[in-house]
Records
---
Amino acid sequence: MESIIERINQGKFWHFHGGIHPPEQKAITSGKPIKHLPLPKQLILPLQQHIGRQGDLLVEVGDKVLKGQALTQSSNPMAVPVHAPTSGTITAIKKSVIAHPSGLSELCLFIDVDGEDTWKKREICQDFSKLSHQDIIKKIADAGIAGMGGAGFPTHIKVNTKPDINFLIINAAECEPYITADDLLIGEQSEAIVDGIKILDQLLNPAFILIGIEGNKPRAIKALQQATQHNDKIKVCVLPTKYPSGGEKQLIKILTGKEVNSGTLPIDLGIVVQNIATCFAISDAVINDIPLIRRVVTLTGRALSKPQNLWVLLGTQVSYLLNQTGFFREVSETKSTPNSPPPNPPVIMGGPLMGFSILNEQVPIVKTSNCILAPSKIEMPSAFDNYSNEVECIRCGQCADVCPSQLLPQELQWSAKAKDHQQLIELNLFDCIDCGACAYVCPSQIPLVQYYRVAKAEIRQQQQLDIKAEKAKARFEARKLRLEQEKTARKEKHDKAAAARKAVMNKKSADGGTASSAVAAALARVKAKKAAKSKNTELPVASGEGQSDNDQTETSPVKAAIARAKAKRLAQEKSAEAPVASNENQKNVVDDTKARIAAAVAKAKAKKAQVNKSSIEQTELSTATKQENMNESVQNTTTEAEEKKARIVLAVAKAKAKAKLKRMDKAQQASTTNNEEST
């Protein structure tokens, strides 16, 4: 470590592989101060402006918000909140085009600005050195700060790391052409930036703090040296101008000579890297209680009449910024259909090498936006071509020579076109930093970075699908295991209950018996009772003249009716005065009626006995109580039906006998009258 510091003190640095020296084009905006803009009429705030997950909404449509008010909350460590850049009203929460090469839409908040710029209540910290470690981490997280150099990694996670940090490296290189946002920020806010560095020093306690800045920023270098002259721990390292020296791994190599291998992180080497603009945001958040709601953006390019660095509220639309800087909408001369409008001139978000063209000027500025480039056709003719000038690769190898990550761009491009994701992973595609150096030197004009970006997106999407499939499989296996455990638990519970019941049944009582023997005895008594009842209701074998003793003692409604009929018949026989022959005829008729009635009663009893016997046989396997109730129900139902039928038969026979007696009485009276007349 001492040798590294000695080398730095001597102004000697290491070199990384590859790199290029494109025209800088920084003088367009580097000589002008940062300008403040009037408030726009509307802001569009994407909920996710960083690597990770979006936060949970805290507002609804129609809510009035204050400047600095949190609009989302972090429910996940990889989620950072977004805040209202100014006061206004939430008018919509819907999907809108975001600042991304894909041109896709994401969920956004639409705020109509009220023009009052009213702040929420803030708590100013007079001495941040008295704050605890966790207090500072919480302030950074609540302020929604993410890396402002391009990656957008949540800062509160990056600075809440293990101790024993050797180097805290502040990235102020700003190596890409045209961009001067960090250069002007350092020149105007060097004291606040150094406060942010001191806060990081309090959190991480590194052995040394190295500020890496390219030598093409003399005013910024001077401002940093003056602000840090009383702190021996901070070293301002003036680096040779070379693209992409601002890459994290490349800057580490230049300053320390250490290589960050594929699949590892700088923290594994005891190194933490932070962007210079992020340091300013940390200072604003911890000291002034100002969340990340604005940033410096470079508006540059020959198509702008007033190129300049601007203080821009997050969520400001690109069209508003272009109008403020005098955008000359030069139309390209590419072919178009007769009825289609002429194509718009190109607008690039980011620098000429790592940036991407935006197809909609309503795209908002986000936390990682540092430049809007509007080139003229003379300045960048390739940007005006809506068709590709790509030709076959000539295998010159220049792309591999300039690749700072020491990859094989040619083979990566072949595998990307073939969608061979496994081969791309083996070729370390994700070590590519999208610097664009390979495409810059390619004589075949192959847009290599575009191939890599598409391939990375496809691999990430497939990995997410694989993760979802694995989670679904895990849920299925967990459910299957849970169901098996529940089934086993139920079986064990039932077996235990059965054993308990068996033990209770076999437990001997005071008289020496058991519950099971008592149940068996009860069943035996029920069967005996049913058998006796069935035996009593059986008819005699022969349909003889008389009835059994049990039948004679029954007091059923049928017998009562028969008795009443007999009594009435005897009374009629006594009161009637008729010849002996007539009485004999009447007696024969009554006997015949009596025989038919007796036969009907015998038939009903036989049928009832048969039904009772069948019912008893079918219900012997039931429990004692249910068996008795069911048999009694069947017996009562059958008895009632048979008795009803017998009463009907008796009533019919009675009516017939009564009618016949009336005819006989009339005949007897007529005969008596004739005898008297003859006498």
---
Amino acid sequence: MKKKFTKILLCFVLAFAFILSGCNLFPRNMSAYLNKSVCTITYEDGEVEEITTKEYINAFNSYGYTLVQNGTEYKDAAKQTVEVLVNRHVLLHHAESNNLVTIDAEAKREILDDVYTALESNLDTYIEEVQKDWDITAPTSLEENDDAVVYTPYVPKAEVVFESYKIKLLDNDDDVPETNFSNLDAVINQFKAYALKNDGTEESKVKKEAYRRFTAALKSNEQGLGLSTDTDSILNRYCEELYKNTEENYIITNLEDYYQTEGGYSTISVKQVLNKYKSLMLQSKFKYEANSENYDKDMLENFEDVYYVVDDNYFFVSNLLVKFDEEKIGSNGMTQKQTYDDLKTKYDKGYITYGEYQRRLMNLAYQVVATARDSEGNVISGSEISVQTLLSDLQKDLNLATTNEDKAKVFNDYLYKYGEDTGVENAEYPYVIGTETSQMVESFTSASRELNDKGEFGAISGLVPSEYGVHIIMYLGKVENLFTISNVSTFNLAESDIEKLTETKLSPLNNKTVFDKIFEQLSEDNYSVFENMNVTVLKNKCKIVEHESVYMNL
């Protein structure tokens, strides 16, 4: 559950939205105006809630403004923002008045931890601003290197209990808040200690100035409200509002669990999963038998949307790429990438033969060096090895592997230790290559097809140079259907077929299964249906009066 609610609903509306937003709708010195109602909701139980101008501005700056940036007219963005706020209020009232979500001690700690995270995130924005103003180069972290490839195993959301053919929901929350705050005061005190630490370093000076600017912005946003103006009071009010919004996000998100869970089991049935998969298979079959051009394009570019293949002309491969060094200058006065481009030009113009071109390419490949990274993506000092040695070590380890699963694991370990191809980073599926068509570069395609001709799962290519660097390719088998549709009118899936979905991985290099994928889709679909239907039903029981003249004229 950790971070789930903030990830899904943080963009809904948060207390700090107006501070950091690029939109400037927030009026100054207008306390009465900020408390004007943009919408009045009267509930079935007689309770009345007002959505204020201040709440609308916060929501618009985090939600409506994004719509405007993407081309939505202000009038439409404003209407949608009010609708989001109404939906939010209605769901919160429903949850709270019926005690559907409990904020226990663990949940409170999660909420407090997220409040602290939000505070640090706010401060980071001002830290960047100070560093820019003071012309300070921010320290870089290898963990934040965009080229780092870090393996993240899939965390299953549910599992099938085969004795009853029911789907049991899994609690995989290992992300326990490190800070484990007990109350909001503890959050504020730790944040202040972090921001105002004075050890004489440049970093502490930057943080202190960032904190000053952050709290000054909070103070500026309270001008004209008649509130106390000392920094501690301002920060406390801000944190209280931030906690309230984060708690509301938690409540709304946990409504999904309430409506989709019965005694630890999902309300989604095994039959629904099978029917969903059957439907997707039939859709693909009809679509691609009628249009072979779209079929080839989707197989190569959008395989995640293909659920039935109509031939056996495609296969899977994975790629361990070691990039060319584009900084070090060789004895020829060029970088490795420049050397590759020069050779390609000479061959294309006929200055060198194909044999000479290939010989020189391999000589270039032998000069490429791979660098190992640890499980966090940090470079391991002194770990450089030639790609020749890398290939030899990989092949030795593969020779010791006795099963396809072991071979895939060996390659996966090398992939994330040495590889630099972000296209395979935690990808649901490997690359798809066609026996006649391909989206990959020529050398990669040719080497992949040679592996397919041999048809040995886990076989690897030699060193394959391309414009990107040097590849080592692993063959992962043909693209095949889990079930064959012989007769559309009689095709069906029995409960026992669910086992095949749970056993079949989307990729031999990761642990996500076909069942996981289909269950996730159903969960999202069901929540959307729940939210739309539930909100509609609840809103029909309310009297909702929008005051367009207030929010349309901002």
